[in-house]
TrEMBL record, chain A:
It comes from Tianweitania aestuarii. This is Extracellular solute-binding protein. PROSITE patterns: TAT. The keyword Signal applies. Keywords: Signal.
Length: 346, 291
């Protein structure tokens, strides 16, 4: 076979070679549907926000061309912001950890998330029937204890009342979502429920002289300088403080670990609702869910996520968790806070 | 703005002299105050007289004033403010006097060190106090070492703990207010008093401290109003058990979403400060000036 190299064929060949990358980049540009778009989401702040960024938003931005920013905001503050911005939202997407999505939907502050196979695959209690929110992770609450102070790990909410632990108990204030759940679980432990909270208040009144704290940021000093041995909290913060060197561990009580849903929803009239929908779908992808479980010990909600065995033993499965009646809790919150301020904190 | 400007000129033309320059100088600040302070403050005031539907009601004020829990909250807030102010006066007076009278070149350095805490965020300072005030913290250990207490003392999540932390946070404000006044009082006045037979302590009390009353008043007012409106220190060091008005307003706004009642508490707090300041100003001036 003879190859005739003349000037024309060489030029044509070179032109073809230089054109190839151009075609390539053009195809890539078409694959980036949100080039030049921005997405503003709330975030939980601190290392949580960084881990979520690494697991979800950075790969999402790289793939779609969007630019996502997370604004650090606690869930309560985020809902207040959402209400304040009703009608002209500056924030497209909201992340909640305290059941605020239920209020947000009721107040008409949200819109439906574009439906995808991953959203359809979620368990019924992990998504809004009308598609306004999805739970992209679940945090298991339970008992956090000093491993050097317990010969055998605590097993029950009853352990808070053991006389030898007097003075070494801490629990979060009711304005903290975990404080509310602790009250509900105490009620359940002593024969009550979300509908019958009195046993919870009666039990908690016996703990009123113990340390009451406000936020997760208190945990390191409580276990360190505070001489605290047992408190109700969650897997994620236990892991964070274990990494900081505290001798503590998490265990699920026999009454069950309440599940805290970590949800996402889109503000009504948000300018970048389509970008937010795609980002939320990304949150549900098994790769993102595994990374979040690795980084924070948060339980994946996508049933198709298979955690590696060594990770799975530290992350309770979503089917093992107790779902509390969030609608009832939200409805009663104001009254409970008021009662708590008088009966427990004073 | 458009109607405000021609008017002075018009009046000036008629002979009622309203000078243009001061009006122009004042206009930006006044405008800023109207838009960003007076108007929102009025809106807040209105909010407190409305129920959730927007209808006029006095129920929220009745709720606040007839409930011992909220009155206790107000009382605790005022106690916190007064105690913090008194501690800063006690610590600040000698310090500011020393700084103002010192001739050494170390004086400037001392002044910088005194005011340095102002450069550190209140949150960071409060975290520092948290570490010190816990049951196994430094303060508790120190008290036991001095044999002042038998067992560990928990100052975290208590009102005294909050007051200690706030006093440290606000001491520089008091020192700066007093420093400026002490500097403006000539030392010669004390010398003159002594040459007329006053003992040094009497001279200090009758001349310098009494002349510094203006500084004590303005310093107290600043410290008091900053103490009772501060949020970071009470919420971090005081926590839920030592709740004060500021943390209650925060909880109502952010957690309970009852903005109307939050507005009532904010207004009550404002009125309480104004009243207390008036009384304090009267006491301080009334007791001193004898003609």
């Amino acid at each position: 076979m003879n190859i005739h190299l003349n000037r024309r064929s060489v030029i044509a060949g070179m032109a073809a070679m230089t054109a190839t990358p151009l075609i390539g980049s053009k195809a890539l540009a078409q694959a980036k549907p949100f080039e030049g778009r921005t997405l503003v989401s709330t975030g939980f702040g601190g290392s949580t926000m960084d881990i979520v960024a690494d697991a979800v938003f950075k790969p999402f931005d790289a793939q779609t061309g969007a630019t996502t920013t997370q604004m650090p905001m606690q869930s309560n503050a985020a809902l207040a912001r959402m209400i304040a911005e009703k009608g002209s939202p500056q924030i497209d997407m909201y992340q909640f950890s305290g059941g605020q999505e239920v209020d947000a939907v009721r107040e008409g502050l949200t819109q439906a998330i574009a439906e995808t196979d991953q959203i359809d695959a979620l368990a019924a209690d992990m998504r809004d029937p009308d598609g306004n929110w999805v739970a992209w992770a679940v945090i298991a609450e339970g008992l956090v204890y000093r491993t050097d102070k317990f010969d055998t790990p605590p097993t029950s909410y009853q352990d808070f009342f053991r006389p030898e632990l007097k003075g070494h108990i801490a629990f979060p204030a009711i304005t903290n979502g975990y404080g509310t759940d602790f009250l509900v679980m105490l009620a359940k432990t002593f024969g009550g429920s979300e509908d019958n909270i009195d046993p919870g208040f009666e039990a908690m009144a016996k703990l009123k002289d113990e340390t009451i704290f406000a936020a997760a940021s208190d945990i390191p000093t409580l276990f360190g300088q505070g001489d605290i041995w047992l408190m109700p909290y969650d897997t994620g913060n236990t892991y964070k403080n274990q990494q900081a060197g505290l001798p503590i561990a998490f265990t699920s009580p026999k009454e069950g670990s309440p599940a805290v849903k970590i949800t996402a929803c889109i503000a009504k009239d948000a300018a970048n609702a389509d970008v937010a929908s795609a980002a939320i779908d990304r949150m549900l992808s098994p790769e993102a869910q595994i990374k979040i479980a690795e980084g924070m010990r948060w339980t994946p909600t996508n049933p198709n996520t298979k955690l590696p065995a060594d990770l799975a033993q530290h992350v309770p499965d979503v089917t093992q968790l107790v779902s509390l009646d969030r609608a009832k809790i939200n409805e009663s919150r104001a009254a409970w806070i008021d009662r708590w301020n008088r009966e427990i904190a004073s | 703005m458009t109607t405000a400007l021609p008017m002075p000129a018009e009046n000036a033309g008629r002979g009622g002299k309203i000078p243009l320059v001061p009006v122009l100088l004042l206009a930006p600040a006044v405008l800023l105050y109207l838009v960003f302070f007076v108007w929102p403050q009025l809106a807040l005031l209105m909010l407190g007289f409305q129920d959730r539907g927007g209808a006029f009601t006095l129920d929220l004020y009745v709720r606040f004033l007839s409930d011992s829990y909220y009155l206790k909250l107000l009382w605790r807030t005022l106690v916190m403010g007064v105690a913090t102010t008194m501690i800063t006066i006690l610590l600040g007076l000698p310090l500011a006097y020393l700084l103002a009278r010192a001739r050494s070149r170390w004086a400037t350095l001392l002044l910088i060190i005194t005011t340095f805490p102002l450069l550190v965020s209140a949150v960071v300072r409060s975290f520092g106090w948290m570490v010190l005030l816990y049951r196994n913290g430094f303060v508790s250990d120190l008290l036991q070492w001095l044999s002042l207490t038998d067992g560990p003392t928990q100052l975290m999540y208590t009102l005294p703990g909050t007051i200690i932390a706030l006093a440290q946070v606000l001491l520089p404000i008091m020192v700066l207010s007093l420093y400026a006044v002490f500097r403006s009082i000539p030392p010669d006045l004390e010398l003159a008093a002594m040459s007329l037979g006053a003992r040094p302590t009497t001279a200090l009390w009758l001349v310098t401290i009494k002349l510094a009353k203006g500084g004590i008043f303005s310093g107290s007012l600043l410290v008091f109003s900053m103490a009772i409106s501060s949020f970071a220190t009470p919420s971090l060091v005081g926590g839920p058990r030592a709740a004060v008005m500021a943390t209650s307003i925060y909880d109502l706004t952010v957690t309970v979403l009852d903005w109307n009642f939050a507005a009532v508490q904010a207004t009550v707090l404002l009125v309480a400060v104004l009243l207390l300041s008036l009384i304090y100003g009267r006491l301080l001036n009334g007791g001193g000036i004898k003609t």
